Amino acid sequence: MKIALLSIGDELLCGETVDTNAAQIAARLYDCGLEVNRQMTVGDQPTAIADALAALANDHATIIATGGLGPTSDDVTAEAAATATGDSLVRNEAAHAHLVAFLRSRGREPFPQNEKQAFLPSRATVIPNPTGTACGFRTLLGSCHLYVLPGVPSEMRPMVEKSVIPAVRERAGQPMLLRTRVLTVFGISEAQVGQLLSDLALDGIRIAYCVQFPLIQVRLRLTASPESGAAALDTAAEMVRSRLGDAIVAEDHDTMETVVARLLDERGLNVDVAESCSGGLLAKHLTDISGSSSYMLAGVVAYANDAKSRLLGVPAELIERHGAVSEEVASAMAEGVRRTVASDLALAVTGIAGPTGGTDDKPVGTVFLSLCDHNGCRVRELHLSGSREQVRVATTYHALDWLRRHLLASDAGDRGRSRP
């Protein structure tokens, strides 16, 4: 079954709103063994919407459209669908009853503008909306089944789950199972990953690459019957692991953060962080995981030099002699926060995120990391590129990855420079 998604709204074309609906619907369909063949976005113009629907209906069995069912003048999707199907636009009594009941349940009466939400193509069947005023609808466009839903994500999601997915699955019969394995990579470039995997013979398995800076996802996809496919994907994943080694930081639904959290919990260790250029981003990533209070003790953002001295005990003369961005200060920051909080491990970050502040000796992107434990502190120097935000994000992931490697192996981090 060929499925198309149509996202409707000027705000999507103008970049004012990110289209999360298409991604969520596609992912949910994929979970059910159904692939989206095409995705299109149009603005709030009746002719453009009707033309898009007609074009998609020519070679798709199903269209799922979102957006343009609200009460305002730019909500014209129902009108456009009626034009595309050759129907008249009429008041749907079921949609009208829902509209009135929904508003009255919240102590409100419909405005005259709300009434337009009850006008649907004459042959349409209502799709219930449990969380909003606008019902969706289902109709035929030639032989293509058209499902039209509100664009509000919190309204769209339950309607897809309760009404659209069951109907599409029933028409599709027994779909093939779409299996996916995801291996997340950090520390090597997309080109390097592609080169390392270029000659893999993965019979029947598609390999795709997705960059989510600064991570790269290697996605292995297999279409198989429900009874088969897992073993083939396991074999393919092992082949990828053999090529990429410890650059693989997480698999499937795991992330770098969940892996680090699990390793800390398994080893019964805790950590705190001292940050300058990353501005608290490292602490955020460590605490994004529920239950992080079991291993994350404290995070200190000491941005100014005086704060490094007052909060972390970094000697002012050390900053004066070596500069705030230096291995000596990074080490002192890690030692200071570990001493203050009495943690097992401490990570410190100091650097120049840019776009200003760089010098010939220390250009923008120069970053020092320090990892401190009972054996002392080690320091790593990084030279990163990109925007200010990219430098901050890459710095954070380098710190997380160093912590991950340290937890995996007692001698991890030996390439850093040990300091007493």
CATH classification class of the largest domain: Alpha Beta
Q: Termini, distance in Å?
A: 65 Å
Mean pLDDT across the residues is 93
CATH topology (level 3) name of the largest domain: Molybdenum Cofactor Biosythetic Enzyme, Chain A
Sheet bearing the most strands, described? 6 strands, mixed
Strand order of the largest sheet: 2-1-3-8-7-6
The number of helical elements comes to: 14
Query: What are the low-pLDDT stretches, counting only 5+ consecutive residues below 50?
Result: 411-420
| Structural shape | elongated
Secondary-structure content class: alpha/beta
Into which percentage range does the β-strand content fall? 25-35%
Number of domains: 3
Textual characterization of the structure:
It is built from 14 helices and 18 strands. It has 420 residues and is α/β, with parallel strands linked by helices. The protein folds into three domains: 170 residues, Molybdenum Cofactor Biosythetic Enzyme, Chain A; 75 residues, 2-Layer Sandwich (Alpha-Beta Plaits); 164 residues, CinA-like (Maf protein). Strands 2-1-3-8-7-6 form a six-stranded mixed beta sheet, sandwiched between helices. A six-stranded mixed beta sheet has the order 14-13-15-16-17-18, with helices on both faces. A four-stranded antiparallel beta sheet has the order 10-11-9-12. The chain starts with a strand and ends with a strand. The C terminus is likely disordered.
